[in-house]
TrEMBL record:
<keyword id="KW-0408">Iron</keyword>
<keyword id="KW-0479">Metal-binding</keyword>
<keyword id="KW-0004">4Fe-4S</keyword>
<dbReference type="InterPro" id="IPR003473">
    <property type="entry name" value="NadA"/>
</dbReference>
<comment type="pathway">
    <text>Cofactor biosynthesis; NAD(+) biosynthesis; quinolinate from iminoaspartate: step 1/1.</text>
</comment>
<dbReference type="GO" id="GO:0016740">
    <property type="term" value="F:transferase activity"/>
</dbReference>
<dbReference type="Pfam" id="PF02445">
    <property type="entry name" value="NadA"/>
</dbReference>
<keyword id="KW-0662">Pyridine nucleotide biosynthesis</keyword>
<keyword id="KW-0808">Transferase</keyword>
<keyword id="KW-0411">Iron-sulfur</keyword>
<protein>
    <recommendedName>
        <fullName>Quinolinate synthase</fullName>
        <ecNumber>2.5.1.72</ecNumber>
    </recommendedName>
</protein>
<dbReference type="InterPro" id="IPR036094">
    <property type="entry name" value="NadA_sf"/>
</dbReference>
Length: 317
């Protein structure tokens, strides 16, 4: 309606007047995705943040994503509509716990998923996202032990994909993805037997999907484990009439936008991240008008954390 058009126009006007680029993660609400200049997964948005000419980055997502953007663009102003948008997965490990884990495993290379605080990244050798985790681990010499954190399911996926036995995995999980159960998969696959299946590696059900594939319930050719960005690429090419999507439900908006031939259904319609959903029109307008919340990172944390993120970016993909 006109009201909607007017706040969106106001967001774009304020962004232009402040030389700001608005980035939105695939899990943001549809209205926020639609008003943003760029929508994508954490890696794609990190790259855009690193390369933008804009002097302000407004990150519609969660706190660690805005922190990553700040690490890559230290001279830019980086804003997040609310600093309270955390991440239950990032909260499963802090810098003290990581230091203790490292001291028990001297000589190991530390790979930190981007879903971590800057203080944790500062203790890591290299970062990864769900779209490059396998490549990042493969970049580490085969005989060097690896500590992978904090997601146990992404860690299990990397162990399977690389076939390495010298990877220790932190037992963290994301409450949203862990909530998508093997029963959800069984029920949905039985109800939609010809559907393609897209699974985010943070899902506990990712391992179940592979297992079911072995059982023949879920043909492996139709099951793909991928990041949110790769799901959009897969959707563009898709010809199936139905696809089941095992990740946060905000994802469905971009999938439906790029492909109207396929019906995209959630594996579990309750898989909603309350932190991602904190961003709304009002907070985005406040962010642009009042310059809050601004991300700052102490210099002694920023330098080593930036090194870990830049090593990841250098690997490509
Ligand atoms: P992506 O890197 O696939 O966008 O995932 C980010 C995330 O928070 C998953 O819960
Ligand atoms: Fe964190 Fe999970 Fe939300 Fe992603 S979906 S931001 S991992 S709590």
């Amino acid at each position: 309606g006109t009201l909607e058009a007017s706040w969106q126009d106001e967001v774009r006007r304020l962004a232009a007047s402040q030389d700001a680029v608005i980035l939105a993660h695939n899990y943001q609400t549809p209205d926020i995705q639609d008003v943003a200049h760029h929508v994508g997964d954490s890696l794609a948005l990190s790259r855009i943040a690193a390369n933008t000419d804009a002097s302000t980055i407004v990150f519609c997502g969660v706190h660690f994503m805005a922190e990553t953007a700040k690490l890559l663009s230290p001279d830019k102003r980086v804003l997040v509509p609310t600093a309270e948008a955390g991440c239950s997965l990032a909260d499963t490990i802090d810098a003290d716990a990581l230091r203790a884990w490292k001291s028990e495993n001297p000589g190991a290379a530390v790979v930190a998923y981007v879903n971590t605080s800057a203080a944790v990244k500062a203790e890591a050798d290299i970062c990864c996202t769900s779209s490059n985790a396998v490549e990042v681990v493969e970049s580490i010499p085969a005989d060097t032990p690896v500590l992978f954190l904090p997601d146990q399911f992404l860690g299990a996926h990397v162990q399977r994909a690389t076939g390495r036995t010298n990877i220790k995995v932190w037992m963290g999980e994301c409450h949203v993805h862990a909530g998508i159960s093997p029963t959800d998969i069984r029920t949905q696959v039985a109800a939609h037997p010809t559907a393609e299946v897209l699974v985010h590696p943070e899902c506990g059900c990712a391992s179940s999907a592979i297992w079911l594939a072995g059982e023949g319930d879920l043909p492996i050719g139709r099951t793909r484990i991928m990041s949110t960005g790769a799901m959009v690429d897969a959707a563009r090419e898709m010809t199936a009439s139905t696809a089941l999507v095992a990740t946060e439900i905000g994802m469905l908006h971009q999938l439906r936008k790029v492909n109207d031939r396929t019906t995209f259904l959630p594996m579990n319609a309750k898989a909603s991240c309350r932190y991602m959903k904190m961003t709304n029109a009002q907070l985005l307008l406040r962010c642009l008008r009042e310059g809050r919340d601004e991300i700052t990172i102490p210099a002694d944390i920023a330098a080593p954390a930036r090194r870990a993120v830049e090593r990841m970016i250098a690997i490509g993909k």
